[in-house]
Design a protein that fits this description.
The protein has 272 residues and is of the alpha+beta class. It has 6 helices and 12 strands.
Length: 272
């Protein structure tokens, strides 16, 4: 009988440990409400859209290099909203050369003049330039490549590698960005904040990484200059106060010693 009591006590302790472990796993696991093997319709997304103040690289490639120089900026050259002609910088300043989109969403492109590009995707702008060049009979055999030179987001808070990260493609997602930052620390909350400034307004999104609803969030596909803030959980936040941390350690050890003492006393009493 005494041995049965002892077994019950050990079983109860193990059960508490298992329950505690399950709770911890549930707190940190991503996307908990998706059934493996299920198929869902993805939200359509055109990709990153060109915005004012973007810096674009636009390269026209032709078989004749001399013709190509008529359409391409030279290294160290930057067009901006402050001038209608290119401004050349010293190479020692290491300035990316490209086309700065002005406040009205325009660029000044060689041979074609002012073009409105805001609201277009990278591919749409490539097609627009190709169409204009062909329509005006400037070139016949050529290709156009457009890329972003300054599109990046910032990740701060409780991640392994906070910092600024460049877009790797036109459709840069929140999960990709967190992966680039080394993932969330185990002490981070799974509801994170995305701050977005657009058209003079600041929008703040709360995204629950534990829910499939994150895929439908406007913040799932990131935009230029988004800021991702990962909040530490309450325990880590409290530990930032050294006094609170020391007191918690003392309380934990005292509680553990008291628990062990009680268990030892109970086991001795049952085995007599």
């Amino acid at each position: 009988m005494k041995r049965n009591y002892f077994s019950l006590i050990c079983g109860a302790i193990m059960g508490l440990l298992v329950l505690s472990s399950c709770h911890t796993t549930k707190e940190v696991q991503y996307i908990q409400d998706i059934t493996p093997g299920s198929v869902e319709t993805a939200t359509p997304n055109l990709g990153l859209l060109i915005e004012p103040d973007d810096l674009l690289s636009i390269i026209v490639t032709t078989k004749d290099p001399e013709l190509g120089t008529l359409f391409n900026l030279q290294p160290g050259t930057l067009t901006s909203e402050f001038s209608t002609s290119s401004t050349t910088y010293s190479s020692s300043r290491n300035v990316d050369y490209g086309y700065r989109v002005d406040a009205e969403g325009n660029i000044v492109f060689p041979m074609l003049g002012t073009m409105h590009v805001a609201g277009l995707t990278r591919v749409q702008l490539e097609n627009l330039i190709k169409t204009r060049i062909l329509k005006e009979g400037l070139l016949k055999d050529f290709s156009v490549s457009v890329s972003y030179l300054n599109s990046r987001i910032s990740i701060i808070g409780d991640v392994r590698s906070p910092g600024n990260y460049d877009f790797k493609d036109d459709k840069y997602t929140l999960l990709q960005a967190l992966a680039d930052a080394g993932d969330l620390n185990i002490t981070a909350k799974r509801v994170i904040t995305v701050i977005r400034e657009k058209d003079g307004k600041r929008q703040v999104y709360a995204v629950d990484l534990k829910s499939r609803d994150l895929f439908d969030s406007p913040a799932y596909y990131l935009q230029q200059n988004d800021v991702i803030y990962v909040t530490p959980n309450d325990k880590k936040a409290a530990e930032s106060d050294s006094n609170a941390s020391q007191w918690r350690q003392i309380s934990t050890w005292m509680g553990l010693m008291s628990f062990v003492g009680s268990m030892v006393t109970l086991v001795i009493a049952l085995t007599k």
